[in-house]
Structure formats: structure tokens, C-alpha cells
Write a structure and sequence with these properties.
Blueprint lengths: L8 E10 L2 H10 L6 E9 L7 H8 L8 E10 L10 H10 L3 E11 L2 E11 L3
Parallel strand pairs: 1-2, 2-3
Antiparallel strand pairs: 3-5, 4-5
């Protein structure tokens, strides 16, 4: 697919849980190489892994060298018991703050034995 050079600002807000993040949203974001401002509000369901620092860096920021503002809220819901067992809350906060983010909040929420979520709200003023 072709790049979208005229897109400088993009906001994607989805209040329903989505199952096709890797197949639909990531390829679209990868096409926005000239993006300067990005806002994402996503609830991702049954992905098998949550959106962590490595994913944000390698699958989003790497493709957007001109990005100077990135605001996101991403929840990952999964039916797998083991998905978040070994990720302490402070590790998620450390991941985000070590990357230069400001106004970080991260929580691991366990609704019951089969439903869990990682929620992050973060804003980053990227250096130009």
C-alpha cells in the first residue's frame, strides 16, 4: 500500500473492543509516515499480548519520524490467564516513563480469573 503523505494529524477513537488491531489498524498507521500528531483510543480484545513499550516503539513510533505529539489510551482485554501474570504495575510505569513520556498512568486490572486489562494513558511531546 502507498504512504499517506498528506495526513499530518490523525485521531482514532473506538469505544467498542476490536479484534483486528494487527490486521487493520497497524497497516494503516504504517502508511502515515508524515504524521505529526497522533491520538489513539483503543480497546483491543484477544490479541494474545498487550501493547507494551517495545510494540509502541517498533510498530508505531519507528514508522513516524515526524511525529511530535502522541496521546494514547490502550486497553488490552484477553481471556488468557497467563497474559499479565508476570508484569508488575511498576514495570509498565517504568517502561513508559523511561521512554520520555509525561503524565503517565498505567494499571493492570483483573476483572476475574479470565478477564484482564492493561490500561495506559500517556502523552508524549516528542523532540523535533
Amino acid at each position: 500500500m502507498n504512504d499517506l503523505p498528506s495526513v499530518k494529524c490523525f485521531s482514532l477513537i473506538c469505544y467498542r473492543r476490536i479484534n483486528n488491531y494487527d490486521e487493520k489498524i497497524l497497516p494503516l498507521l504504517h502508511r502515515m509516515t508524515y504524521l505529526e500528531k497522533l491520538t489513539l483510543y483503543l480497546s483491543i480484545e484477544n490479541r494474545g499480548r498487550f501493547i507494551d513499550n517495545s510494540h509502541i516503539q517498533n510498530e508505531i513510533l519507528l514508522y513516524m519520524p515526524r511525529l511530535h505529539s502522541f496521546t494514547f489510551y490502550i486497553s488490552t482485554y484477553d481471556d488468557t490467564d497467563d497474559l499479565f501474570r508476570y508484569v508488575p504495575n511498576q514495570d509498565i510505569q517504568r517502561i513508559v516513563t523511561n521512554n520520555g513520556y509525561q503524565q503517565c498512568m498505567a494499571n493492570i486490572i483483573k476483572y476475574n480469573s479470565s478477564r484482564q486489562a492493561v490500561e495506559s494513558t500517556t502523552e508524549k511531546a516528542l523532540e523535533q
